[in-house]
């Protein structure tokens, strides 16, 4: 178990070193970027939306399958000719889901069917620096600190409700922990829009959550008298996120062949 965690850490460290090398090459070769035919952007910031998958590590990975990730990102350049930015990330990870079809209590009974949906999720927030090359192909590395909020929620909806509106919702269990993260990726400029580029953004992140308490599928047991019994897990809850999305630059002037405004 410990060896597996160390192996993941070594792989992540190697990827980060490679990305740092690529970023350094991009920062040290402005004359090559000036000769590029494709447009680049002198934008002041960026905002992006990403989808991806979460890969639980160590003890967390032994108990939980992979999860679905949705993440929003925003960055504001602060130094090094806009190569160094302050980056904010806000995301959600769904790592477990179960649904039960039940009936109303008598006298209504099964004339009206309802669904009980239980979702295991993690809300994440982090902020920290990002170092990125500027150009049509822009590798970057980033790091941050923040928090992770583990929560399991059950909700009730009608069995034939097509809009999936929840009639009732209850948080069964939750835990709030600090988080650190590091990662990297590469952005590919595919178009221009106003004062900034439109970029395909692919990357990875390591989320270090430390020890957390959480539920997984099957950890809530329904008892005959209608009450429930909860069996929480307490382990390290670190994970890796692989993501891809679209990032938009804003607030700058497009540049073509090293000349502004073209």
Low-confidence stretches: 1-9, 22-41, 257-262
What structural class do you assign from the helix and strand content?
A: mainly beta
- Largest sheet features: 8 strands, antiparallel, barrel
CA(first)-CA(last) distance: 55 Å
H/E series, N to C? HHEEHEEEEEEEEEEEEE
User: How big is the Rg?
Assistant: 23 Å
Summed over residues and divided by their number, the pLDDT gives a mean of: 81
Could you tell me the strand content as a percent range? over 45%
Sequence of strands across the biggest β-sheet:
2-3-4-5-6-7-8-13
Shape: elongated
What descriptors fit this protein?
about 260 residues, mainly beta, 8-stranded antiparallel barrel, 3 helices, 15 strands, about 60% strand, elongated, disordered N terminus, disordered C terminus
Describe the structure.
- There is one protein chain.
- The protein has 262 residues and is mainly beta.
- Helix content is 14%, strand content 61%.
- The protein is built from three helices and 15 strands.
- The strands form four sheets. It has an eight-stranded antiparallel barrel. The protein has a three-stranded antiparallel sheet with strand order 1-14-15, with no helix packed on it.
